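A brief tutorial aside. Many learners find it easier to grasp structure tokens once they have seen a single protein encoded end to end. The record that follows does exactly this for Putative iron-sulfur protein. Read the sequence first, then the structure, and try to relate runs of similar tokens to stretches of the chain.
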Amino acid sequence: MSSKIFYFSGTGNSLAVARELSKNLSDKGSIIPLSIYRNEETAQIDTDVLGLVFPVHFMNIPDIVKCFIKKLTFKSNPYIFAIATCNGTSGASLIELNKCLDRKGKVLSSGFVIYMPGNALVTPDDIEIERLKNYKPKVTEISTTINNRSTNKIDEKDSLKTYILSAICKSLGKRLYLTPKNVSYTSQCVGCGICKKVCHLNNIEMINKRPHWGNECSTCLACFHWCPKKAVKGGKMLNKRGRYHHPQISIEDMELKIKLESATWRKS
Ligand SMILES: Cc1cc2nc3c(=O)[nH]c(=O)nc-3n(C[C@H](O)[C@H](O)[C@H](O)COP(=O)(O)O)c2cc1C
Ligand code: SF4
Ligand code: SF4
């Protein structure tokens, strides 16, 4: 048996979940950042199990995850599972993901939502602590379903209202949080380049030791949250909140994951 878990993560929540899950899978599974396929035409799957772990963005799956699914080609007929991490409102993320898979002639065997601390809207401190304590037992439960190759019923509503809300949330939300137009750095910037290192879309270029943002942004907010000088600014809502990242994920994890796993993937 072989499993591959593809993840996308801005502040480490989804990466922490993917790591915890791989420990609990019968074959441990390899964890791969799906962003390494950004410039590839296809992503070939030849394993028995295919997993997708990602954050909910605007009650939906991030565009980069949709693009990744479009690129999938299958040499095997894998059991497919997905875990969406979010701050309490998954919208129709898993239903949408299942629709993307359906276009590839595949079906989501099991789908799960895990509540984690929010990196856009703020989660109250007591709830944040509780979620950081509770996600591991939840992942253990999920791994039993996956190891048994069981299917589950996706607990989301496929209603027009959800899609309209998601679209409104996306068009307003991007402006309130971060867009290529409103993102900038303040005089606190020391030119360390960490914002560039954690950007899985390679959307930041350092010119004369200062960051310059391109248009390939996924609004993951990694550059905002990981900047050690709190020098990255965006829209009104974003600038009001504090920085967050998962306590067990480091800058090196965010950065190294891309390099090491990219190398592993290229060898296979
Ligand atoms: C642009 C953006 C939009 C988000 N939209 C939602 C949402 O609609 N519902 C929700 O519950 N959480 C939402 N979140 C919160 C994240 O889904 C949540 O914090 C997630 O665990 C972050 O995972 P990561 O650290 O792996 O990126 C949003 C976060 C971002 C950055
Ligand atoms: S991480 Fe912050 S301090 Fe470092 S280069 Fe980027 S904006 Fe400047
Ligand atoms: S520019 Fe910032 S918000 Fe946009 S993809 Fe890169 S790290 Fe994420």
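Self-check: The longest strand covers residues 79-86. If you spotted this yourself, you are ready for the next section.
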